[in-house]
Amino acid sequence: MQQFIKSLNKAKKVQEQQKSVRDMKIGEKGIICCLTDPEMSLKLLEMGCIPGEEVKLNSRAPLGDPITIIVNDYTLSLRLDEAATIKLK
Amino acid sequence: MSQVLAPPPASVPHTTTASSRKVAKIALIGNPNSGKSSLFNHLTGLNQKVGNFPGVTVDKKTGISQLTPSLKAQVIDLPGTYSLYPKSLDEKVIIDLLHDKKADSYPDALIITADAANLKRNLLLFTQLADLQIPAVLALNMMDVAEKHGVKIDLAELQQELGVPVIPVNGRTGSGLAALKILLSQELEAPKSTFFQIPEHLLVMVRQIRYYFELSNDYLAWHYAHQYHKLSFLSEDDKQYIGELVKQYGFQSQALQASETIDRYTRINGLLLDAMRVTKAENNEQFSNKLDQVLTHKVFGYLIFFGVLFMIFQAIFAWAAYPMDLIDTGVATLNAWIHTQADGPLVDLLTDGVLAGLGGVLIFIPQIALLFAFIAILEETGYMARVTFLMDKIMRKFGLNGKSVVPLISGVACAVPAIMATRTIDSWKDRMITIFVTPLMSCSARLPIYTIMIALVVPETYYLGFLSLQGLVLMSLYLIGFLAAIFSAALLKWVLKTKERSYFIMEFPTYKMPRWKNVGLTIVEKVKAFVFQAGKVILAISVILWVLSSYGPGNAMQQAEERATAELTTLDLNEADAEAHIGGQKLEASYAGQFGKFIEPAIRPLGYDWKIGIALLTSFAAREVFVGTISTIYSVGDSENISTVKEKLMAEKDANGQPFFTPARAFSLLIFYVFAMQCMSTLAVVYRETKGWKWPILQLLYMTGLAYGSAFLVFRLFS
To answer: Can you tell me which residues bind GTP (chain B) (predicted)?
Structure first.
């Protein structure tokens, strides 16, 4: 748990420059590093976006937002501002 | 595959037994899209009842299942959820039920549904439930899909690891159901395994809560510590007690929930290493992906979506018209027949009051059935998720949700089924906004008023040979309604404060064939809900309106009739017009007529007189009644014929001998009907959907206010 809080705090500092799911290209894969929004992270964790899991950007809506990602073998759709809270390693 | 595995040997003596009470209560719980509804439908068939969870707008679906020829059980369908930490108001009913052993519907056992193709994520909720130590069985759905994806599940191993009986079921065919029923008819034990260790430094606090509330296990107490402020059955003192403990121990709920979730996933990964084998590396969703390239395409995606919307619109606008006419003539014929058999005030109450009101309820059934047939198919196939995906960005700007599109467009046909369709919107705030603004869309009942008022004052001019001026006016009325809906939504987004945070994050399901049984049961459920819940209100109001327009103070009605009959000798009228003349005089003398005169001062600024006042009152039953009422009050015999009504209205003179229906008056009326709530059925259905009178009353006030203000402006502007 302590580790998780640390990762949250650390994430806050590097939040600006670190790459997130929002910045991925279609078809690109990455490894989830951490989740930066404490409240939303609970929802994301429950949906299977766990640090260390592989995530792939699957598609974007015609207007660019929302997007779909593949994580834990199934497809999730989420808005860009939500995707921005999933940082990559 | 569907073999029944023997339940694991008992190790914990159970306290609650299925047979110790008369009818065992079984709760169905699982992730969204895990086949929960199908299983509920298979277990209960048509023996379903929709009630309320106390205090929330969530439907509580219960049903009776015949487990064995001699044993019945009550099955409660809980809202789909990903975890026991609720993120929405809908999910909150789950902890209110499962965390309160004294609750009326506290279940004796749980059926936990899981999607075998997404087992890892589905097991998260399972492990939380198992730690609550409620007797349970795991119904493993969609094994065939999992196998197609190259996922092989060792059932015996899984059952061993999970510590509860595991039954493979198939929501489509219903296989495995017999085994599930047999198992449920026996006494189930509390799960053998636990999956989460409460951190040691917090165990003291958890135990304190556990003993204070006499809870059966630590994990339940742990949930009390996390969610005490959300549990509606706890008293303020109880909440304060936990609140102080939590503060004293520096209990960081959010971080602890996050690490609990990570711990659980680690544990699940470990146990699935033995119980699950994945042979194909890539998930085989090629078909869905290919289809998505077309259905969510920049151009085709929207074209197809608008095609689908157009078809839905056609169905509730045009196709539904046939059965609706049938119901209409059926009720009219029945009424006429009763009138030939008997006469008197009681017969009038039965026919013109009760039966007419009943007809007013039944008339909506075709539209509701058709709309929900479409919505159920959109949901079942997975297309609804794509609709949300396509429309979210646009709709979000106005405080709406991608899913608000379907109710809004359906509102152009009729607001009643449209408001019922907002069920698909998960976020409470988005749903309330959608419900609130949908009646502003011009529905088909406004069309008769639009047609007659436009015919009255807009000349039949054509621009460029084909652009009809009347058509343009009609179109702008629809546009005004749409803009009012959109901007009211934007306003509400800003006004409405909510504690609940709304997420968009959702599963993007693969395309599937619809399960027709579910489609059928959805239609039955929606029609039943409308007839029995909104129908009561509609019936009551229509009887009241009938009394108001059939009775007058003292013997005023009788005098009016005698006077009108006497006048007939001096007037040269045909039979229909003569009858209408008497009807008009009687209506003027009735309570409705009194009401019209009473509100005249209030509506005079809009250009209306007491006659229109009567029509405003009676058309509250349904807007199209407006035309019928003004036909009666202006003594038009043949109200079916628009040109007759039009001639009569054009001949109507004001006090100065000038035509009464000036463009200013007609436009003022048009704008009034664009915005005004004027529909008891909509109010009744909003009451049902929001489970209270707060929203319908706010809506009535807002829309009437908007209508009054705009009509006033229009009348000033044109006169």
So the answer is: 30-37, 55-59, 77-80, 141-144
- How large is the ipTM? 0.84
B506 inside 8 A of chain A by CB: yes
**Residue B13 confidence (pLDDT):** 43
- The Cα–Cα gap between B209 and B284 comes to 48
CA angle B337, B341, B345 (to 5 degrees): 100
Is B657 one of the annotated binding-site residues?
A: no
d(CA B642, CA B623): 16
> What integer pLDDT is reported at residue B388 of this predicted model?
87
pLDDT attached to residue A9 = 61
Q: Could A42 and B257 be called an inter-chain contact, meaning their C-beta atoms sit closer than 8 Å?
A: yes
- For residue A16, give how far its alpha carbon lies from the nearest alpha carbon of chain B (Å): 22
**More confident call, A83 vs B287:** A83
Sequence-ordered alpha helix ranges (H) in chain A: 2-14, 38-46, 80-83
The Cα of B297 is separated from the nearest Cα of chain A by a number of Å equal to: 6
For helices B253-275 and B155-162, give the axis angle rounded to 10 degrees.
150
DSSP code at position B152: E
Do B693 and B430 touch, CB atoms closer than 8 A?
A: no
- Helix (H), strand (E), coil (C) string for B292-324: HHHHCCCCHHHHHHHHHHHHHHHHHHHHCHHHH
Q: Do A62 and B302 touch (CB under 8 A)?
A: yes
| pLDDT, position B635 | 64
The third-level CATH classification (topology) of the domain covering B24-185 is Rossmann fold (3.40.50)
Q: Judge: A62–B390 Cβ closer than 8 Å, yes or no.
A: yes
Strand B71-77 versus strand B24-30 pairing type: parallel
Q: Taking 80 as the threshold, does the pLDDT of residue A53 lie above it? A: yes
Confidence of residue A4 (pLDDT cuts 50, 70, 90): low
By C-alpha distance, the chain B residue nearest A79 is: B504
Burial-class residue B73 by CB neighbours within 10 Å (0-12, 13-18, 19+). buried
Q: What is the pLDDT of residue B449?
A: 85
- Measuring CA to CA, how many Å separate B459 from each of B364, B472, B660? 34, 12, 17
**pLDDT tens digits for range B16-42:** 444 444 689 999 999 988 889 889 999
Q: Choose, out of A12, A39, A45, the residue to mutate when testing the contact with B (most B CBs < 10 Å).
A: A45
Residue A7, SS3 per DSSP? helix
Phi, psi (5° rounding) for residue B508?
-105, 95
Which structural domains are found in chain A, ordered by start? 2-88 (2.30.30.90)
Inter-chain CB proximity B121 and A74 less than 8 Å:
yes
Q: Which of A50, A61, A73 sits opposite B262 (nearest CB)?
A: A50
Is the torsion defined by CA of B166, B172, B178, B184 positive or negative? positive
- Residue B406's Cβ-count burial label (10 Å; 0-12, 13-18, 19+) is buried
Q: Is the dihedral of CA A31, A33, A34, A36 positive or negative?
A: negative
| % residues pLDDT > 70 (chain A) | 82
Whole-number Cα distances in Å, B241 to B157, B205, B227, B228, B552:
43, 11, 13, 10, 62
B32's tokens? 């969204």
Identity of the residue in A63, A74, A82 whose CB atom sits nearest the CB atom of B393: A63
Say if residue B656 carries a ligand binding annotation.
no
Low-confidence residues of chain B: pLDDT under 70: 1-22, 52-57, 280-285, 499-502, 635-642
Q: Is A62 on the interface with B (CB under 8 A)?
A: yes
In this prediction the pTM is: 0.80
CB of B294 within 8 Å of any CB in chain A? no
Q: What is the pLDDT of residue A1?
A: 58
The label of the residue with tokens 């834990």 reads A72
For chain B, give every domain's residue range: 24-185, 200-278, 533-718
